[in-house]
């Protein structure tokens, strides 16, 4: 709303008696509500001066405390960063203590004048959501399934075939109410439909889902208002611009979302206070005024959000990503939350906002949200994974969802009463939230059965849901839903019908500021691009040097034409930067667009406009370097005309690739689509294939190709100049016109301006199409799950079989399976392979790294930063040890040091295995390491992943049948059998859930039959039910007699007490407790309670949380002690030291670990197993193999029809140029596409390779050769498909030798391009850098192919570059094998063979050498890939 409109609105509010803000019945003129501060006359005078201003001006002025007792009048919109910071510090010094009192002051101010803050109630009735999906083998992607599924979809759309997809119910007739002023917690096991319910309430369900039912806000249907402006949905994925700081991210969100109706409310508030002679608190007044002014770059709301979310320490740190160092995962999750809290949304829908956060941080955030909801009449519906008991207590209502049905919805106080009425009781030392998520599960339900007089039978979700309807809470809910909401109670300002929070001009300003900041932060990329452009300009200038560029014959003109074509080529390719940058930012754009931050055109406009000056700079540098150096026409006007034309070409290229990125929306698809577009443009530009040779069925592509207009205009600009104005002997036309006509270009001067006009038109059209694509297209399917046919309902716990680990008692007992004889039998059955028990002992472990430059810049003088300080301890077989500490205490660092996973730093101290010094090569054979990030090959099934690990890591004496049986037993142990045929997939994109990946990570290590297992955060990011499954797996593993150590973050009571021993580190890497936990953690509690000043643990509290709270640095300062020093002087330390010394001595008769070979399998066996894995990975990776095959087939058909019958025509020079042009274009684009598409594949697999290499699974060379060999059949099919189609349609000579030569050269060319892509990926940290380096090589190779400028015309000082250009050898081979022995006479009087020898320097008798060299290029790149993958390690630990 415009500000003058707001002013009018506030005046109309005054005139109509405040119809919008309801009077609560208070007498606003009562003296009890007046504040007369006679003690400070000066401040009263200042306030009186503000009061005399008109309302609009008064809302922009405030009194700000500048020192104790002294205030100053300030202009609110111009508040600086320091002023805002001081204001926030006065209002909220400590978030934990001051936030509530601050919000109460705001509420009291509003209540004083009788204004009621609007409330929002959300109802959902009979919601049903269904999806269609393939089941079983059809759900697994494969080369054939890709094409079969696409064909079936087309036939189904044409109503020629019924779909084979199955209907899956996600939500099943759910109804309920989310009440205002109450915190509602959403709980449920994995795949229960929590995210779908939240999206349905936010109005953001995927359109492909079948939705029925009704959602209302204060009784209004969603079509009556804009739900995205009322409801803030905070998703699980943290999508942010990595180049922005935390503050900039939240500030941009606040700026776009606006302030809602708060300005109007403040205007009415000010009017009523003036009428009642009430003087508000100056700081509260300044805050409210600052918070109600929209369109500011940074606002006080941003500072408030940063403060309550605990982001002050990292507010000015970049968000970052895998390429840019930034904030931690937990901080990034808080930024995701803050981004939506910064807006005026009344309803908060939060999906698993605690992922990556410790329980204390989660508690503080939820507590702040509770205060805001309760005091300011908000509405919150929040899904959490593992809420700690104290966090759970903060919620008012609970919604328990299971299998798409609501099991319970109502007050938190009644939830246990409901389940007790069903016969289930929550144990004393069990978190209620954990109990609720497990009680509906078949595997976990039995332990909670409390009716001893009745036999237990499994209670289904349907039975729970039905029973809830007759429970008194359920009846009350039904009665509430049956009573329609009184719409008269709804505030009309609440449900807005406007799409955006601020006016379009403010949004444009915000997006321009955003784009400028991104350009500044990415300045390195732009500078690198400029340097690359200058280097290519210098090379191009010296290749086409004016002293070598003659203007005497048409042949000279053709070479000069190559020079100007090279300029057009460079600026067409320069747009690829926009492709990458647009593609990377699209996920963030889609999130912000769907949240109605701005319309798509507002996002697209600054990107286009700000790209224009960049184009001017790039083209200016290019033209200045190349124009006169290349000997182009020296007319200054032609110089300026070429400058204009190349600027327009650059702009057109950028617009085209932004459009391609918007259409593709996924990098593999986008790269393929971009290659296809470039190929179509190049083939129809008039240079590769002349206009008079274009077939009539392709002439439309010629006329709509923007590159054709660019190429025509630039050659006309050059060849109609004075330099080409002379007439050759025996001709009637000027030389320039002859050159133009010989290559089929237009020769009229006005075609330059037609070209300019056409390019302007294309720029406009492409930018408009880009805007439309951004407006109407949605992200490609983000989250797809694969279900195997033997899974009926839930992935792992609803298959109708009672768990062997079920028995009555506490959940801690459940995890400690040694008490159950069935478990012992299961354990013995499960571990059929023998292994040696080993302990690991370590003394005085010190680990340090080089001092980071950031810390040196702050004045730190030491050379090294010590992360671990003298850690001593031991881990024994059959003992489960927890490694704990606050963030930054060195948990993972210690584990990495002990496991030998560190790639840098300085390690001191001794590590012994069963008393013998540790040798990493042998230790890797008996050790398993489960990393926190679950890294697996995405295109294998669960069973294949385990079999692969077992094949490489088990002793070769174990035969195939025993190995497979062992794998199956491990799958049973970790409860993965129902998922054996499920595809692993990529985290957050496809395949297994987070919890299933955790179990797979553990299983992959277990099938290696290790003696010692390290587990880094095995329960991180899991809900309580999933964490219990994982910990049951861990406990089962320990009970087989293995040594297991886990780092753990903030476990629940039952998970914590499943451990036997604890090693606790404090910040700085010092141990403060090493010893047993004891029953119900009694030993650990006794130790800490024995320290003077430590408060005793309260009944029901989590011992893990209590332990971390009482051992913080703040507690050390308060008590005046050093916990590390106390431990070192304790009896416990003495006992541990004695134990360590005892374990440091080998037991009698024991031998040091020794294996005859470094790896379990022979080199050839490693190669075969790696090849087996790669074969399945490639077969199922349809976005790579199938898309590449489809792309190749389309290109072949396109080329075949475009260059139809070209091989049979050999009478003119142009015929040969056309034929060579087809080969040049195919080699360039098919090759580049192969190289570009393999890079992301190698990048993903390389991450898996680092883990497998560290585990000692195979030699890096065996892996590399398997990666190389697996490409051979796919590229053979690609080359054969392309060769057969093109060779026949272009009508090359049908002789066996020529055809086989054609296939041979295409095959090895595609091979060396693919291996080149793999090599560049192996020598760079990520595929973005690999793409930049590759592009530089493509530009050089293109220049020296011999097509743009033949070898005979390349200056002698650059000719060596021709011989080291792989593409030049390919073109040499293709041309010579087809035409090198042809004796046909051309129209100029010389034979084809003679022309090739004279113009290109090609000789037919050299074809054997060419073939050998091309094979050599493929072998060279493959070998370099293998060596690079072995030598370079970009994983930093």
Automatic annotation (TrEMBL):
Name of this chain's protein: ABC transporter domain-containing protein
Cross-referenced InterPro entries: AAA+_ATPase (IPR003593), ABC2_TM (IPR013525), ABC_trans_N (IPR029481), ABC_transporter-like_ATP-bd (IPR003439), ABCG_dom (IPR043926), ABCG_PDR_1 (IPR034001), ABCG_PDR_2 (IPR034003), P-loop_NTPase (IPR027417)
Stated family: Belongs to the ABC transporter superfamily. ABCG family. PDR (TC 3.A.1.205) subfamily.
Principal subcellular localization: membrane
Keywords: ATP-binding, Membrane, Nucleotide-binding, Repeat, Transmembrane, Transmembrane helix, Transport
Location(s) in or outside the cell: Membrane
Domain ABC transporter: 155-428, 840-1092
PROSITE patterns: ABC_TRANSPORTER_2
Keyword Cytoplasm: no
Membrane topology: Multi-pass membrane protein
Transmembrane annotation, as ranges: 524-545, 557-581, 601-630, 642-661, 673-690, 750-777, 1185-1204, 1216-1236, 1272-1292, 1299-1323, 1329-1349, 1361-1380, 1406-1427
Transmembrane helix keyword on record: yes
């Amino acid at each position: 709303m415009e500000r003058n409109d707001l002013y009018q609105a506030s005046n109309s509010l005054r005139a109509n008696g405040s119809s919008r803000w309801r009077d609560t019945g208070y007498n606003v003129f009562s003296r009890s509500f007046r504040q007369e501060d006679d003690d400070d006359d000066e401040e009263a005078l200042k306030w009186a001066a503000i009061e005399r201003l008109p309302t609009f001006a008064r809302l922009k002025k405030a009194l700000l405390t500048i020192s104790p007792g002294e205030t100053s009048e300030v202009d609110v919109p111009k508040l600086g960063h320091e002023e805002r910071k001081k204001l926030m510090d006065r209002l909220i010094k400590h978030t934990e203590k001051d936030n509530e009192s601050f919000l109460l002051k705001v509420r009291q101010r509003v209540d004083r004048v009788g204004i009621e803050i609007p409330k929002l109630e959300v109802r959902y009735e009979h919601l049903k959501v269904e999806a269609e999906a393939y089941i079983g083998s059809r759900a697994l992607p494969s080369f054939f399934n890709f094409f079969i599924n696409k064909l079936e979809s087309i036939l189904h759309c044409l109503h020629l075939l019924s779909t084979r997809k199955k209907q899956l119910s996600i939500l099943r007739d759910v109804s309920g109410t989310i009440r205002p002023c109450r915190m509602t917690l959403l709980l449920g096991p994995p795949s229960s439909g929590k995210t779908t319910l939240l999206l349905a309430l936010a109005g953001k369900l995927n359109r492909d889902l079948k939705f029925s039912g009704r959602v209302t806000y204060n009784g209004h249907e969603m079509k009556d208002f804009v739900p995205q402006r009322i409801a803030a949905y905070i998703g699980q994925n943290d999508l942010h611009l990595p180049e922005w700081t935390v503050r900039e991210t939240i500030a941009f969100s606040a700026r776009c979302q606006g302030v809602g109706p708060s300005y109007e409310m403040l205007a009415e508030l000010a009017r009523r206070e003036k009428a009642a002679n009430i003087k508000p608190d100056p700081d509260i007044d300044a805050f409210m005024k600052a918070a109600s002014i929209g369109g500011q770059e940074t606002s006080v709301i941003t500072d408030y959000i940063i403060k309550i979310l605990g982001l002050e320490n990292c507010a000015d740190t970049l968000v970052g990503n895998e390429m840019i160092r930034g904030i931690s995962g937990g901080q990034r999750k808080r930024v995701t939350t803050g981004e939506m809290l910064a807006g005026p949304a009344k309803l908060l829908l939060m999906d698993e906002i605690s992922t990556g956060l410790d329980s204390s941080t989660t508690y503080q955030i939820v507590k702040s949200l509770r205060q805001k909801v309760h005091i300011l009449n908000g509405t919150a519906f929040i899904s959490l994974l593992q809420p700690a008991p104290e966090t759970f207590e903060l919620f008012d209502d609970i919604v328990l969802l299971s299998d798409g049905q609501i099991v319970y919805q109502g007050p938190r106080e009644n939830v246990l009463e409901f389940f007790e009425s069903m016969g289930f009781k929550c144990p004393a030392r069990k978190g209620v939230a954990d109990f609720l998520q497990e009680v509906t599960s078949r595997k976990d339900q039995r332990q909670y059965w409390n009716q001893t007089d009745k036999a237990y039978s499994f209670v289904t979700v349907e039975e729970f849901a039905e029973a809830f309807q007759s429970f008194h809470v359920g009846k009350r809910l039904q009665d509430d839903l049956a009573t329609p909401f009184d719409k008269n109670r709804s505030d009309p300002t609440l449900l807005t019908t406007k799409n955006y929070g601020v006016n379009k001009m403010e949004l444009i300003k915000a997006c321009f500021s955003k784009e400028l900041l991104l350009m500044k932060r990415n300045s390195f990329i732009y500078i690198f691009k400029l340097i690359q452009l200058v280097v290519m300009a210098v090379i191009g200038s010296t290749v086409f040097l004016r002293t070598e560029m003659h203007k005497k014959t048409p042949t000279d003109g053709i070479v000069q034409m190559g020079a100007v074509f090279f300029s057009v080529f460079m600026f067409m390719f320069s747009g690829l930067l926009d492709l990458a940058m647009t593609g990377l930012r699209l996920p963030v754009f889609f999130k912000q667009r769907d949240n109605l931050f701005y319309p798509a055109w507002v996002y697209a406009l600054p990107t286009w406009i700000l790209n224009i000056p960049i184009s001017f700079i790039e083209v200016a540098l290019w033209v200045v370097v190349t124009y006169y150096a290349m000997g182009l026409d020296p007319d200054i006007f032609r110089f300026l005309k070429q400058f204009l034309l190349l600027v327009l070409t650059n702009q057109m290229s950028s617009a085209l690739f932004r459009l391609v990125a918007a259409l593709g929306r996924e990098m593999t698809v986008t790269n393929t689509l971009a290659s296809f577009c470039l190929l179509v443009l190049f083939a129809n530009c008039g240079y590769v294939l002349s206009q008079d040779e274009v077939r009539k069925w392709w002439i439309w592509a010629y006329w709509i190709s923007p590159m054709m207009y660019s190429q025509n205009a630039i050659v006309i600009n050059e060849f109609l100049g004075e330099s080409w104005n002379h007439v050759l002997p025996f001709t009637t036309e000027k030389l320039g016109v002859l050159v133009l006509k010989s290559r089929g270009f237009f020769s009229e001067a006005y075609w330059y301006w037609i070209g300019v006009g056409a390019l302007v038109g294309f720029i406009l059209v492409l930018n408009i199409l880009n805007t439309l694509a951004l407006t109407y297209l949605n992200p490609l399917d983000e989250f797809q799950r694969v279900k195997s046919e033997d899974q009926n309902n839930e992935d792992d716990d609803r298959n109708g079989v009672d768990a062997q680990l079920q028995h009555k008692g506490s959940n801690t007992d459940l995890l400690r399976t040694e008490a159950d004889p069935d478990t012992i039998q299961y354990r013995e059955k499960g571990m059929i392979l023998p292994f040696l028990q080993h302990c690991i002992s370590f003394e005085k472990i010190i680990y340090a790294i080089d001092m980071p430059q950031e810390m040196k810049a702050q004045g730190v003088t030491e050379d090294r930063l010590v992360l671990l300080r003298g850690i001593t301890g031991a881990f024994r077989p059959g003992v489960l040890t927890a490694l704990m500490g606050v963030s930054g205490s060195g948990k993972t660092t210690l584990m990495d040091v002990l496991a030998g996973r560190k790639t840098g730093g300085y390690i001191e101290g001794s590590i012994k295995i069963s008393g013998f010094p540790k040798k990493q090569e042998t230790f890797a054979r008996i050790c398993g390491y489960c990393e926190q990030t679950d890294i697996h090959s995405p295109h294998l099934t669960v069973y294949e992943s385990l079999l692969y690990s077992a094949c490489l890591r088990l002793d070769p004496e174990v035969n195939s049948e025993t190995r497979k049986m062992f794998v199956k037993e491990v799958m049973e142990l970790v409860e993965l059998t129902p998922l054996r045929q499920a595809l692993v997939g990529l985290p957050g994109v496809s395949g297994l859930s987070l919890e299933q990946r955790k179990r797979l990570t553990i299983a992959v290590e277990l099938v290696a039959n290790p003696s010692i297992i390290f587990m880094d955060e095995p329960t991180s990011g899991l809900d309580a039910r999933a964490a219990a499954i994982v910990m049951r797996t861990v406990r089962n593993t320990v009970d087989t007699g293995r040594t297991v150590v886990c780092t753990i973050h903030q476990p629940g009571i039952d998970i914590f007490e499943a451990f036997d021993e604890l090693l606790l580190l404090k910040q700085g890497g010092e141990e403060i407790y090493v010893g047993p936990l004891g029953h119900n953690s009694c030993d650990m509690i006794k130790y800490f309670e024995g320290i003077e000043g430590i408060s005793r643990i309260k009944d029901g509290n989590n011992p893990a949380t209590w332990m971390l709270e009482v051992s913080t640095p703040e507690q050390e300062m308060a008590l005046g002690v050093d916990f590390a020093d106390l431990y070192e002087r304790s009896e416990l330390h003495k006992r541990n030291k004695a134990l360590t010394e005892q374990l440091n001595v080998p037991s009698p008769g024991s031998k040091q670990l020794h294996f005859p070979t470094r790896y379990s399998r022979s080199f050839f066996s490693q190669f075969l197993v790696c090849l087996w894995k790669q074969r399945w990975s490639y077969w199922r990776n349809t976005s790579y193999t199938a898309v590449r095959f489809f792309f190749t087939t389309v290109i072949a058909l396109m080329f075949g029809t475009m260059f139809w019958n070209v091989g049979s025509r050999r009478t003119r020079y142009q015929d040969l140029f056309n034929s060579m042009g087809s080969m040049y274009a195919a080699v360039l684009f098919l090759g580049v596409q192969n190289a570009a598409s393999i890079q992301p594949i190698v990048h993903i697999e390389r991450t898996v390779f680092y883990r497998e290499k560290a585990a000692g699974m195979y030699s890096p060379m065996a892996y590399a050769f398997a990666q190389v060999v697996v490409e051979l059949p796919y590229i053979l099919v690609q080359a054969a498909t392309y060769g057969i189609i093109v060779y026949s349609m272009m009508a090359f000579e049908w002789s066996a030798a020529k055809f086989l030569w054609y296939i041979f050269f295409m095959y090895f060319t595609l091979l060396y391009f693919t291996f080149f892509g793999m090599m560049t990926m192996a020598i760079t940290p990520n595929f973005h850098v690999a793409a930049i380096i590759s592009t530089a090589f493509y530009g050089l190779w293109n220049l020296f192919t011999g097509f743009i400028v033949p070898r005979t015309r390349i200056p002698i000082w650059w000719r060596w570059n021709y011989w080291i250009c792989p593409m030049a050898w390919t073109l040499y081979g293709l041309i010579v094998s087809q035409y090198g022995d042809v004796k046909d006479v051309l129209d100029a009087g010389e034979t084809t063979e003679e022309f090739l020898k004279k113009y290109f320097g090609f000789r037919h008798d050299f074809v054997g050498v060419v073939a050998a060299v091309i094979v050599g290029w493929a072998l060279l790149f493959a070998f370099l890939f293998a060596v690079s993958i072995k030598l370079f390690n970009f994983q930093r630990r």
